[in-house]
């Protein structure tokens, strides 16, 4: 029952992030990194290879004043994550484009 609820929550959080579209204006969804489990943040694992990731994300920049950002918690192991991602500098290759409310908490993109 709890797993079904968390999967539904994951679907809602992921649906809030706009999918990247080639040739269209890129809108970035605000995201903040937290170390707390309060408020059930999405557990995300950043993978070193694209083949290991469920989604590819592009970080468009910082948006510290963004209202109501999606909350994610970084985990080291894919087995502990609800979503595995790969970071890229190429927005046209990304599934999601995000901006960070606390950019110092995220690692650099690989491409």
Helix content class = 10-25%
Total number of β-strand segments?
6
Label the structural class.
alpha/beta
What's the main sheet like? 6 strands, parallel, barrel
Order of the strands making up the biggest sheet? 1-4-2-5-3-6
Strand content: 25-35%
Distance N to C terminus: 39 Å
Number of helices: 1
Mean pLDDT: 80
Instruction: Give the uncertain stretches in residue-range form.
Output: 19-24
- Output the helix-strand order: HEEEEEE
CA-atom Rg in angstroms: 13 Å
Shape: globular
In short:
The chain is an alpha/beta fold. The protein is 14% helix and 31% strand.
Characterization of the model:
There is one protein chain. The chain is α/β, with parallel strands linked by helices and 111 residues long. Helices cover 14% and strands 31% of the residues. The chain is built from 1 helix and 6 strands, in the order αββββββ. It has a 6-stranded parallel barrel. It is globular, with a radius of gyration of 13 Å. The termini are far apart. Mean pLDDT is 80; it is low at 19-24.
Topology:
Layout: H1 2-16, E1 29-33, E2 42-46, E3 55-62, E4 70-74, E5 83-88, E6 96-100
Parallel strand pairs: 1-4, 1-6, 2-4, 2-5, 3-5, 3-6
Structural key phrases:
111 residues, alpha/beta, six-stranded parallel beta barrel, 1 helix, 6 strands
